[in-house]
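Standup notes, structure subgroup. Blocker cleared on the protoporphyrin IX containing FE input:
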Amino acid sequence: MTTDATIDNQPFHYEEVDFFTGQPYEQWKRARQECPVIGSDPNGGLGSMLSTPDRQAFQITRWDDVEHVLRSGEVFSSSINAEHIGQFMGELILAMDGQEHRSYRNLVAHAFRASQLERWRDTVISPTINMFLDKISPIGKADLVRDITSRYPVRVICAIVGVPVQDSDQFHGWSEKINTGPLDPEAGLEASRSMRAYLEPLVESRRSEPQGDLLSDLVHAEIDGQRLTDEKIYGFLRLLLPAGAETTFRVMGNALTALLLYPETMARVKSDRSLLPAFIEEILRWESSVTQVSRVAAVDTEVAGCPISKGSAISVLTGSANHDSSRYENSEEFDLDRPAKNHMAFGTGQHQCLGMHLARLELSVGINEILDRLSNLRLDPDAPAPVIEGLAFRGPQALPVLFDAV
Ligand code: HEM
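Run returned:
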């Protein structure tokens, strides 16, 4: 590819793609064809979220380039993640590079292996989804976002971590304030302090008396005599809810939207559950909740022939890569029968999502139980049809449905 293929500072009208309700896929499709590395206009648009008057920002749209950037950690550093959210979360795995990142990840990775997570299926995940289904099933009518998806992964994470589930709303509230700390720093810092004060006695009790939960794993994890410092333990705990709950809740909404909008797909998956894993992977490709991750150029470099100077901010558009027609036929379409191929929903390289097996497990158990227990599930014809929307985070705001009451 030559520099002709990249049109620096070409005005891509992201200001027309609303952060909460926008539909970016058409713009990204055009970018992949005409301008695969978008240089941002510092005065407006998505790229400018990361740019400052003295720092340029770029967006990477094609599969090959997204893969290259995410697999070249020495060239494209994650340290940019410390600038905004790191102030509120503390020492953040998402913002570490190189050896520091490897050592930290090794210490926490054990708890997130698929084999380790299986124990939560019957003890936490299945009872949690069934508790929510018990509440709605006699009614015959629900908003699946309000009544299930927005609450189920949060509760699962709290139970796995070892936070008493009766405190999960409080924990969720702090987590949201920490997450939106860059918009309201005072509230973000206050929530960060409160969450730590709340967690301290729990952490201390796990040190003396391990309970088989994630908190116990974190405080006792040891490799070559190395343990996590307190700052790293609290930093990790502050990241877990936004990283695990907000993401999975929206993907589950996207999956249910697809089942409701395509009743023939719902009928196939309902009658043949061996199709469920392929259905979940295609949802993750077609409509993931996270469409981009951030990096900063650690050296002068180039992507697809476009020069990128040291210090430039990079939005790596994993959502666009997942729709790249050079990798997927009919890439904009949802297709349950698509030949299996890896996708970018969980990123790739050294920061690939640590919680992907947990996300898959929650999605699989959750969708299975919904299909089992809500018979004759359909959209409520008197309510507006659901829309998957948003620029950086995508999901439906509501999913009004009807089903047979039992
Ligand atoms: C469908 C749901 C999920 C999606 C779409 C998702 C997406 C992602 C992506 C794209 C990254 C890479 C970030 C980067 O490269 O900068 C990531 C990292 C991460 N995710 Fe997830 N995630 C999901 C669920 C979860 C869950 C359930 C957890 C934990 C309970 C989790 C914990 C993490 C952590 C700790 C990292 C940082 C890994 C590192 O920096 O080495 N995620 N996730």
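Discussed briefly. The radius of gyration is 21 Å.
Next: hand off to the docking folks.
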